[in-house]
Inverse folding.
């Protein structure tokens, strides 16, 4: 049976892995490739590298090659600076398995079907910074620091199946203590699976969020950096969820 | 001593770096190339694949490798297709636009039933017929696809399913010296490395 996933997130700014608080305040953590290596050893189900300041610089292929050189055997998602089909293909050729797009959805959504044609929709994730205004779901634009309803072009891509999953980023609670679960309730395309991200650190909340049918994965960032083997510790607290047994069990019985 | 060397077919549609590093972890010497003269040195060929079927077949044709692979397989050399590489083994795909495949395993590539995608870690249910999966029944491996190769049950050596009550679909096939793995063994941690090691041992035996 297909399991739910625990995704380890590495946020990268100015070439360094950072702790992010609301995507507005940052504390340095170290080298992204070292953190990726840790998550691989600890049995993360996927590793997500989000380079949040690439903009016109394009994807950080040098970083991807450094990560690939570690020889990870955990699936890798990369987001940051992807502006074209060629960028997305180069990201996969450099070691990622899937790509996450955010700014591209705002600036040039017509490129996304081209990425789908080259890589398959299963490799395409929409990274959407989301929040709640009153009782409505809104999208947050980091560049203008404004909020607005999700763009029709994004919704059309989701409904068309050009994108396989949505990284639903709670931009208000990023680095905080709780993910706003209303984001899951109000997400307007229920047939597209969600990866919940932002404020997820409490095992009880992670278990509750992963228990929702539309949520396929929980992405955890900052709190994984507070000690050794945090993925394994977290998985052991998730109870009866259909989640993969931490990998060290597999090493023991082989 | 017979020289065991794995040749990774590099036609521009695969995560070559990850496959190469995983193969090295299993102890095999390997190299990636699209040059038939180079690939001729390999005792087993590995065909990785990421992306959409039509683009991948176009890339194989563009590299002039379709005929080469067909001659290699007919000559008895083993071929292991990984992820999209397994789908390419089939006759035909319905993905995006109807496209002919390599035709090594009778069958067609169709959309997964019951869901749009099969993404994440799922358990293998092995048939018991393939020795290279003998130790892997019930193991979780990583999948990332939306189409599957539907083929005759005689070639299916493992299936997976999206839910306990839902129909199984093929995720590993074997037809003589042809092997296919729909999942990503190179991204399935210890379980994947075990399968990769075992399938290459079997492929060397079969070829």
């Amino acid at each position: 049976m297909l399991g739910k996933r625990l995704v380890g997130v590495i946020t990268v700014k100015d070439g360094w892995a950072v702790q992010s608080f609301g995507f507005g305040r940052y504390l340095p953590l170290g080298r992204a490739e070292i953190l990726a290596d840790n998550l691989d050893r600890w049995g993360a189900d996927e590793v997500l590298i989000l380079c949040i300041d690439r903009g016109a610089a394009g994807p950080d292929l040098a970083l991807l090659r450094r990560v690939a050189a570690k020889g990870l055997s955990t699936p890798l998602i990369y987001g940051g600076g992807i502006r074209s089909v060629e960028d997305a293909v180069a990201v996969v050729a450099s070691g990622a398995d899937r790509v996450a797009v955010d700014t591209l959805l705002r600036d040039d959504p017509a490129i996304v079907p081209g990425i789908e044609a080259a890589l398959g929709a299963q490799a395409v994730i929409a990274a959407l910074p989301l929040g709640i205004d009153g009782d409505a779901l809104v999208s947050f634009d980091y560049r203008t620091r404004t909020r607005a309803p999700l763009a029709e072009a994004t919704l059309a891509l989701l409904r068309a199946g050009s994108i396989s999953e949505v990284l639903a980023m709670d931009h208000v609670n990023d680095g905080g203590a709780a993910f706003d679960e209303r984001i899951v309730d109000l997400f307007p395309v229920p047939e597209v699976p969600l990866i919940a991200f932002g404020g997820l650190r409490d095992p009880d909340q992670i278990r509750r969020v992963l228990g929702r049918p539309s949520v396929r994965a929980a992405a955890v960032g900052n709190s994984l950096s507070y000690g050794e083997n945090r993925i394994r510790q977290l998985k052991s607290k998730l109870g009866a969820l259909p989640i993969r047994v931490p990998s060290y069990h597999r090493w023991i019985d082989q | 001593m017979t020289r065991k060397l794995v040749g990774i077919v590099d036609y521009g549609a695969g995560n070559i770096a990850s496959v190469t590093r995983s193969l090295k972890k299993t102890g095999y010497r390997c190299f990636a190339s699209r040059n038939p003269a180079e690939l001729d040195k390999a005792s087993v060929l590995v065909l990785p694949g990421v992306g959409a079927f039509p683009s991948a077949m176009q890339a194989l044709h563009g590299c002039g490798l379709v005929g080469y692979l067909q001659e290699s397989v007919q000559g008895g050399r083993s071929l292991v297709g990984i992820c999209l590489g397994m789908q390419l083994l089939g006759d035909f795909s319905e993905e995006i636009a109807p496209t002919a495949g390599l035709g090594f395993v009778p069958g067609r590539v169709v959309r997964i039933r019951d869901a749009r995608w099969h993404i994440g870690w799922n358990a293998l249910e092995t048939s018991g017929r393939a020795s290279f999966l003998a130790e892997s029944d019930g193991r979780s491996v990583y999948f990332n696809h939306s189409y599957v190769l539907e083929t005759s049950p005689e070639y299916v050596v493992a299936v997976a399913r999206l839910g306990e009550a839902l129909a199984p679909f093929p995720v590993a096939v074997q037809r003589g010296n042809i092997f296919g793995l729909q999942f990503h063994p190179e991204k399935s941690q210890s379980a994947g490395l075990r399968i990769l090691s075992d399938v290459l041992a079997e492929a060397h035996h079969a070829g």
